[in-house]
Structures are given as C-alpha cells and as structure tokens.
UniProtKB/TrEMBL annotation:
Organism: Cryptotermes secundus
KW Endoplasmic reticulum (keyword) present: no
Name of encoding gene: PGRP-SA
Protein's recorded name: Peptidoglycan-recognition protein SA
Entry's family note: Belongs to the N-acetylmuramoyl-L-alanine amidase 2 family.
Gene Ontology BP terms: innate immune response; peptidoglycan catabolic process
InterPro entries attached to this UniProt entry: Amidase/PGRP_sf (IPR036505), Amidase_domain (IPR002502), PGRP (IPR015510), PGRP_domain_met/bac (IPR006619)
Sorted UniProt keywords: Immunity, Innate immunity
Amino acid sequence: MTKSRMRWAGYVARMWRRGMRIGYWFLVGGDGNVYEGRGWHQVGAHTYGFNRRSVGIALIGEFTDSLPPRIQLEALKSLLECGVKEGELAENYKVLAARQVSATKSPGLALFQEIQTWPDWVENP
C-alpha cells in the first residue's frame, strides 16, 4: 500500500473509530482511490430530503479556490461508470451538487463550476 493510500485509508478509519458515521455512500480521496462509506445498498445520511433517492459521494478535500487533482476527478467518473455498469445507477443518472439541494457551500466553488460542465449535471433536481 502506498504512503498516500495509507494516509487516506487512515483518515477514513479514524472517522469510524471516533464513532463518526460516514453519511456518504462513497468518498474519493486525493490519491485516486474510492473508499466505501455506506455502499450502494444502504440509505445515506448526506443531504436531508434526498438520502433515499440519491447517491451521496464526497470528494475528500476543500475545493473553493482550486480543483481536486485530476486523479481524484477521474476516480469519481470511474465510480459513476462502474455504478451504471453494475446496475447500481440508472444509465440516465443526473449529477447535482449538495449546494443545489441544501444550504451549504459544498462542494466548493471551483469544483461546483467544474461539475456544471459535465454532460450529466442538471440545474434542478
């Protein structure tokens, strides 16, 4: 296991040990690895009012002024493709940011502007 992967895996493990339940289905680290939170088959606790009808995926980091590393964005896109391929996501899934459905600045302005250029992004839920 690489040093970077160990650091991200350690971050997730520390959250669990501290009793912090991960509300997201998946977390994507800056190392390009995807970490399972609740997984595909449990109701999330990520966005009030949308937990039962959405998949919550968090990118670990702060993206107000700069984008995540390319490897992190590629891992997110690969996760979405995998979800479709495995039948966990509909082929016509839509991408929304948390700020579109709740009072938050997540996922940060730089990342939000990037997501808006993706073909599956929609303005309204």
